[in-house]
Write a structure and sequence with these properties.
By secondary structure, the protein is mainly beta. It is built from two helices and nine strands. The radius of gyration is 20 Å and the shape is elongated.
């Protein structure tokens, strides 16, 4: 498969909500030359709890902010993953009647974060609060009273969430560092059924400064 074909496949699979933070991450790499800019750009594997399923998917984490002093930074963060796919049987009755549902969820997590780092020992922690934003595609199909049916609907879902991102540096080149990191977040408060109980644990490798 050519590089162009791989890129086209990636764009098709990833979706708009995934491409946005990737473009942001690329731009951040070009704009973090200033010593006053704090940034984390991480790629990892995320175990997601959604609709009773627990898929493990590629994830991208981005934090960018301004330094308040040598320890504290304040800024914004986002995470996105590959779309989540799940299925369930809504109804199964006599005479072959059955209703099935397939869900595709493209999610992005946006928030405000404060990062504390210990430059002498090479560790950092960044609690955050924000919003879980999801685009949900609901495909219902099956058979009722001998007649088949098939319908698809798309809607957006939102929820408040909180999380914690932390890491340990494994490479230090002055202002540029590489960290092993973990991030955990979950939705809190009222949510729609499609994102009820949504939570994610991500472990990966990150560039930071």
């Amino acid at each position: 498969m050519s590089l162009e074909s791989r890129a086209a496949w990636f764009v098709k699979q990833c979706g708009t909500m995934c491409r946005l933070p990737i473009m942001l991450a690329v731009s951040l790499l070009a704009t973090t030359a200033s010593a006053d800019v704090a940034a984390v750009i991480g790629v990892g594997a995320s175990r997601i709890e959604a609709n009773g399923d627990t898929p493990i998917l590629p994830a991208l984490d981005v934090f960018v902010g301004g330094r308040l002093d040598e320890h504290w930074s304040l800024g914004g963060r986002l995470q996105t993953t590959w779309p989540v796919h799940s299925s369930e049987v809504l109804y199964a009755g006599g005479g072959g009647d059955i209703e099935l549902a397939d869900y595709t969820i493209e999610a992005m997590d946006l928030g405000l974060s404060g990062r504390y780092e210990d430059p002498d020992h090479g560790w950092w922690v960044a609690p955050w609060i924000g919003a879980h934003v999801a685009s949900v595609k609901d495909h219902d199909y099956g058979q009722a009273v001998g007649n088949s049916f098939d319908s698809t609907s798309t809607f957006n879902a939102y929820a408040f969430e909180a999380g914690l991102m932390a890491g340990v540096d494994v490479y230090d080149a002055g202002s540029d560092k590489v960290s092993i990191y973990a991030d955990y977040h979950h939705v809190v408060g009222p949510t729609s059924d499609s994102v009820q109980g949504w939570a994610a644990l991500t472990v990966g490798l990150a560039y930071r400064r």
